[in-house]
Design a protein that fits this description.
Blueprint lengths: L7 E5 L3 E6 L8 E4 L3 E10 L2 E10 L10 E4 L4 E6 L19 E3 L1 H5 L14 H4 L1 H12 L3 H34 L7 H16 L1 H8 L6 H19 L9 H16 L1
Parallel strand pairs: 1-8
Antiparallel strand pairs: 1-2, 2-7, 3-4, 4-5, 6-7
């Protein structure tokens, strides 16, 4: 009779593998260690309810079956599998394609090993093996934090470029066409765009706070925050300013500076 597969989470250090089998209320599981395999069968409560669960893992390298143990807890089963030779494995299984029910337990890569002595801690893979950690994350989730940052900055910079190019182009065309008469109507066209572009720029302050962007927060806060105050509290509520040549020149300079930056 075929068994359902429980969710299994794994981590490692140089000496051992750590498996967490996501099953509750397990009694007398059938567990077998081999040099390059791990067999598990049990009845318990998992992702599919109260059923018979099982799986077999073909490891990418050899383990020590005699020193490997599993501990049955109320809400999970923890396994400490000792490697035959010390070293970091590039993956858990022999095949590059891992099954969908096998997950990487990133918390265990960085937390204290609760199956060994209290003084022993797991290596932080992010520091010791940064390339391996990023590759494992990409295999697990399909993307990494750096991928998200790159996509965000591409979209953000493109939006800023298109937006400020639009403002500069409109101001330049209107001035070349109508001269100083363009001062009386430019704000209706570019005013909302300038407001929205500066609201978007406020995200630069947030990016500095969360560490996605380097730099001091105070200069960005003064520049972007100061412009937002001017636009929303002084310029936008005062219609008489909307026809001033000084404001026309100010918006042209601001937009040109942002394009260069």
């Amino acid at each position: 009779m075929p068994h359902l597969n429980p969710f299994v989470y794994w981590a490692q250090n140089e000496d051992s593998l750590f498996l967490k089998i996501d099953l509750k209320d397990v009694n007398n599981p059938d567990i077998k260690f081999e040099e390059r395999k791990f067999h598990f069968q049990a009845h318990g409560v998992g992702a599919h309810g109260s059923e018979n669960y099982g799986f077999c893992l073909d490891f990418c390298s050899e383990i020590n079956p005699n020193e490997s143990v599993c501990k049955v807890l109320g809400s999970k089963i923890d396994c400490n599998i000792v490697k035959a030779k010390k070293g970091w494995w590039p993956r858990l299984t022999g095949k590059p394609q891992k099954p969908g029910w096998l997950k990487i337990d990133f918390d265990r890569w960085q937390s204290e090993d609760d199956l060994n002595s209290e003084d022993e801690k797991l290596h932080d893979i992010r520091d010791d093996y940064a390339d391996l950690y990023e590759r494992l994350k990409k295999e697990e989730f399909g993307y990494t934090k750096e991928d998200l940052k790159k996509v965000y900055f591409i979209i953000y910079n493109l939006a800023m470029f298109v937006g400020f190019t639009y403002v500069v182009a409109v101001l330049a065309v209107q001035y070349l066409k109508d001269g100083i008469d363009s001062f009386s109507q430019f704000y209706e066209v570019v005013g909302p765009a300038m407001k929205y572009l500066h609201f978007l720029q406020f995200s630069e302050i947030i990016l500095v706070l969360i560490g996605w962007r380097s730099g001091a927060i105070l200069p960005a806060l003064i520049q972007i925050g100061g412009r937002l105050i001017l636009i929303n509290l002084l310029i936008d509520p005062e219609p008489r300013l909307h026809k001033e040549g000084t404001l026309f020149l100010l918006y042209l300079v601001w937009s040109s500076v942002e394009l260069i930056r």
